[in-house]
Amino acid sequence: MSISRYKKPIILGILFFLPVTFLLFLYPSTHNYQSLDIVYDNVEDISPFLNDKEKEYAFQNNITVLTFLGEKPYEKAIQALNLKELIYDKFKGFKRFQVIALVANGSENEVKLLLRELYQYDELKYWHFVYGDADEIQSIYNSLLSTSALSHDLSTEEVFIIDKDLKQRGRIDDRTEPEIEKDAKVYGLYSYNCIEVAELKNKMSEDMRILFTEYRQKRKGNYDSSTRREENLKGDAKN
Asked: Contacts from 186-192 at CB under 8 Å and sequence distance 24+?
């Protein structure tokens, strides 16, 4: 009996069952889905000090990665490049995604120098530099949950995730599995260090993926929020 006689049914069977098997593997991860923690509410929006042409850059209704480059943004080229290569390049083009870099009024020449470095790789369609005075920038920073102060030049190596509803996202419990097993004290992750490549690549990238999954589930109408909050963390970590 010719083997070729059975080739077509076997191939058709494989083509039918392979997608079904793939979906069965996906189902548990969807069923056990958890959203990215809200670590702080009511982040101050930047819209009050934007001009009419810049209003689309507001935090409201956008998924924002916020960085503070301050008075000398060109000196922060390393952290800007890390952020671009490890976060911006991965998520650019996702619906309502943007990177906002807050810089001080009067730093226009420094921004031009930094753009030359960044433009070597890509046009920054979803990356926006927003100018403000010292009080405006400090006010935005004060509305975030952070474990460190903004430096004297209005910059920080920390970068923040803000969702469409002006809520800061991160991790309420950032302990490792060995730390959990040892019942170590709970500590959170409210921002991500742009100099620490591993933190951007392994933690922030994963957290951004979770957040986009959350919004995708909401659009499909399949989202059952399980986002956790701990009010006492606000008082403990707020500067």
From this structure: 188/37, 188/39, 188/233, 188/237, 190/39, 190/40, 190/144, 190/145, 190/146, 190/147, 190/160, 190/237, 191/144, 191/146, 191/147, 191/158, 191/159, 191/160, 192/158, 192/159, 192/160, 192/161
